[in-house]
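Our preliminary data section would be incomplete without showing what the modeling component actually yields. Below, a chain of 397 amino acids is followed by its predicted structure, encoded as tokens that our downstream tools consume directly.
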Amino acid sequence: MSGRALLVIAVGSLVLRVLYGLFLLSDGSYEPLSDALHYHGIAEALADGRGFSHVFPFSTEHATAWRPPLYPMLLAGVYVVTGPIVFVGQLLGCLVGTAVVVLGTFLASQLPGRFTGAIAGVLLAVYPPLLASDVTILTESLSLFLLVCTVLLVERHRMLGAGVCTGLLMLTRPSAQALAAVFGAWVLCHLGWRKAIAFVSIALLIVTPWVLRNWFVFGRPLLVTSNGFNIAAIYSPEAMQNGWVDGVFDPRLAAVREGAVNEAALDESLRGHGVESLLAHPTYPLTVIARNVPRLFEIDLKHNDSAETLDGRSLRLRRASLPLFYLVTAVGLLGMRRLWQYRSGQLLVVATIYFTATSLAFITVPRLRAPLDLACVLGTAAVAGELVDRRRLRGRL
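Predicted structure:
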């Protein structure tokens, strides 16, 4: 694929994202809510010199590890210059999302098919589920960027860079906490134990300073302090009655929260409450997965509306683009067989399975589907590229 074509895709991708952020998203008046508000608030505190602090999940500002640190640090680096302006955070997401499009196009161009890279580039640039993530103050864009970087570096046996990117990804996406082990197992099977040890060691080295900070602040070596919240949200007795429970605000969990002096203590209490219930109902994860599959694949549409609204996505665009989502997902899942034939494709599929499984076992909202969306786009491009080549060959014959 030529550099000029890649530049056109990059510029078009950035323009689409900026236009979407300005004119489509909440009628041009995007306001960070829920998770986005947390990231924005932590970044603002960092830029103001107050360190990693926030008011959630307590009522006063305190040291926090509720969210992974890398994205707030990146956002704070911009806020130091511009101030905590929401549109600046959106623009940062547009730039990172455009970088994902470029890297994804480059990755797809290495697959068979003369036009596979171009097809992937166009799809990545315009695909609504990915586009919607890039104009909010959330971690999906940065996570995908680091994921594609890891895939490309592992393919070239550059374990130093791959380990660094994996460690950074673990500091970006809460569900990536076990990613070093998952990728390390793949490297062990395909590249040998020396490269696997180097890869895992570097990834763990990257996350160590943050873990030590949390050990010093909270008395426990943690990557995040929200694991207990997620477990209790799905597997506590209260959640089994209602499908989901808010461990921070639900009055039924007041006794569980009582005495929690910091986030780590709250995490431990909520985790213990959820795990105890899970052990008493070991088959309940099957119920959760069965409930989440229709939500993941946009079959249970109404359930996702509230999550999409909180995440700052346009419901109008989402509903209008559902036929394209169904088509790309169906073709992309079939196309993953083609991706599996190549090392880079294998690693991407492994990451997709890992992230999708963690989402299905806990909370499935459309933005958490981003790795699957990316893999489906590349799988669709692989199928389309092969079909185009066949038609061209038949035309010559």
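The longest strand covers residues 53-54. DSSP finds 20 helices and two strands in the chain. Preliminary results of this kind motivate Aim 1 of the renewal.
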